[in-house]
Amino acid sequence: MDALSFQLLFNGLVLGAGYGVLGLGFALTLRAAGAVNFAHGDVAAVAAYGGVTAVLFGATGVLAVGVATLVGGALGLVVAAIAWAPLRQRPVESTFIAAIALGIVAQNSLTVGFGGAPRALPAILSGGWRLDGLYLSAHGIISLGMAIFAFTFTALLLLKSRFGMRLRAAAEDPEIAAAHGLPVIKLAIFAFVFAGILSGLAGAILSTQHYVTPAVGAIYILKAYIAATAAGWGRIFPTALIAVAIALFETIGAALFSHAVAEGVLYLAFLTLLVFRPEGLAGDVRGRRV
Amino acid sequence: MKRAFFAILTFFLSLLGFTGPAVSEEVYVPVLAPITGFLALEGGAQRNGAVLAAEHASTRHGIKFVADVQDTTTAPDVAVSAFRRALKGNKPTAILGPILGSQMLALLPLADREELPILTISGTAKLTEMGSANVFRFFPGDSVVKAAHALYAIDQVGMKRPAILFQTTAYGQSGRTVLKENLKNLGVAPVYEEGLSPAAKDLSAALMKAAAAGADGFLLHLHAGPTALAIRQAKELGLDLPIVAGSAMHQPTTAALLEPSMLKGVCAESGSAPAAETKGAAKVFADAYRARFDTEPDAFALAEYDAVGMFAEGVAAGAKSPESMRSWLSKNSYNGAAMNYSSDGKGDMAHSAIIVCYDGASRDAKVVRRYKDGAWVD
């Protein structure tokens, strides 16, 4: 593999770090609350602007990432309180339409508050290393580290902790879980908050290298939605991995073909998958349960 | 007692806005702009320019100009709805169209059907090539700025094998076509070209393929975010090639995304660069804009300011119907803050361009060349 290929792989992984963490949160809400949170991308954008605001008040790159994750968590709570909790007994469309509406409000609020100009979070560590024609940015390496930490922490929380077991039980069958005394609604709200924190982290990772604009949430949610559908509705870790694969494909596919062709091939592949395996690569958790 | 009565009356009238410069009439100025969506930066500048121009024109002419701004987002159908909304009630004398080329292309047939002059700052070349008598463009079209773009890259920078990276939007494709024509006229063919979606998040592949094709410089025709991303990634990849970018790069908000050192060797074309001007009417505009909006002005704000300024001058001169306004805009010239405007018979009003460059020590652009009618004029 030459330096060009390594460079593309590295850049794709850095982009995938953001997409992957974003997909992780989207699938978590989908699994735990049965909610298609279409505001998830906008939460990432608002959280990134939270970090941008912190920088205006003198925050460093590390602090800005912290602020972005906190804002993301708080917004997760807002989404749960407005777009999920009051509508959870209604048809599922109610929730995702409410989430879309919240996302539009968020986009327009950002435009009014910050204007339309792209903004960037400062890198936690600027600069990088040049090795035989390969450039490894410090920001890229830190982004990969943050994404690996987020994946590991989420896996441990869901798979190894008592809390995660209760969360999964509530997600599998809310009625049976409630009958056994589990606080199903509180657990779902926690899932929204945790997904918001992940979304905030993704927003911080993506906005440092790729900038943030008020409308960028629509692009983010498209990637997360494709990943969730391709992986299988409600499959948390496969969704995150497919989100990383999308980023790699966008970067490497652009080198093999062109950006426009790579984008077309990606959507064509997605449509083909929907035709031949509509339940997704890892299978549909909710469909299987039904 | 009488004095007290008049004092109280004056106080209440002032609350109702009856004081200040005397105005004899009110003129409705519909402004359609993409305030939200991926072109919100340019749409916001367009809105600000129109609002400031309406305020200044009201004071100058003693006529109250009311800029009624409608958001067109970035979809042509939303622009059409906004256009129809603007025509409800009294028919306006003219309408200020959105900066987005694809929206202007959708609106132009409607403007022709309504026989309503539509003033625009969209650079899309096709707009003034469709034979419409109602379109008036106040930002130099691609035929001007892309000619300056190509000439600077070849004549001043010395590129012989440029690569073109352009946006896949109507704006990008129009600019790319005209840029290529101008390069051809200069005896140069691009060694690499690629269209990029505004949503593309990593441009390293396009940059590296261009370098591998033997490019000796980059010609960018991208929106603000992708322009900054392309420059940043080119520098990170160690591609130390000169870059001559499109007008998005002259915007102070684009430069703010990059470290000053990354801007070394970067130049850009534009219709004007008010933030970079140190004297003259453009500097006066820039100061007023900063005071009014607490942000840096760009060429789009200034072009819209001049468009509304010329419209207001036409109203003050007696052009108070769409027919008379169309005739007035076609036959008169206007000394705006950016340049002198006059129709070339097709509706192109702006015929000058500038080139700005960055020195790598700061984010402040400097005007290095001024262009008009196919040649440098400074």
Detailed description of the structure:
The complex is a heterodimer of chains A (290) and B (378). Chain A has twelve helices and two strands, in the order ααααββαααααααα. Chain A has helices spanning 3-33, 40-56, 61-84, 92-114, 138-160, 162-172, 174-179, 184-210, 216-231, 236-256, 259-276, 285-289, and strands spanning 128-131, 134-137. In chain A, strands 1-2 form a two-stranded antiparallel ribbon. Chain B is built from twelve helices and 15 strands. The longest helix of chain B is centred in the N-terminal third of the chain and has 22 residues, at 40-61. The N and C termini of chain B lie far apart (67 Å). The chains are: A mainly alpha (290), B alpha/beta (378). Chains A and B meet through helix 1, helix 4, helix 10 and helix 11 of A and helix 2, strand 7, helix 7 and helix 8 of B.
Notable characteristics:
heterodimer; A: 290 residues; mainly alpha; two-stranded antiparallel ribbon; 12 helices; 77% helix; B: 378 residues; alpha/beta; Rossmann fold; 2 domains; eight-stranded mixed β-sheet; three-stranded parallel β-sheet; 15 strands; 42% helix; globular
Strand and helix layout:
The complex is a heterodimer of chains A (290) and B (378).
Chain A (H helix, E strand, L loop, with lengths): L2 H31 L6 H17 L4 H24 L7 H23 L13 E4 L2 E4 H23 L1 H11 L1 H6 L4 H27 L5 H16 L4 H21 L2 H18 L8 H5 L1
Antiparallel strand pairs in A: 1-2
Helix pairs in contact in A: 1-5, 1-8, 1-9, 1-10, 2-3, 2-4, 2-8, 2-9, 3-4, 3-8, 5-6, 5-8, 6-8, 9-10, 10-11
Chain B lengths: L1 H14 L10 E8 L6 H22 L2 E8 L4 H11 L8 E2 L4 H14 L3 E3 L14 E3 L4 H16 L4 E6 L2 H16 L6 E5 L7 H9 L4 E5 L2 H13 L6 E3 L6 H4 L10 E5 L10 H13 L5 H18 L5 H10 L1 E3 L4 E3 L9 E6 L8 E7 L2 E2 L2
Parallel strand pairs in B: 1-2, 3-4, 4-5, 6-7, 6-8, 8-9, 9-10
Antiparallel strand pairs in B: 10-13, 11-12, 13-14, 14-15
Task: Offer a concise description of the structure.
The complex is a heterodimer of chains A (290) and B (378). Chain A is built from 12 helices and 2 strands.
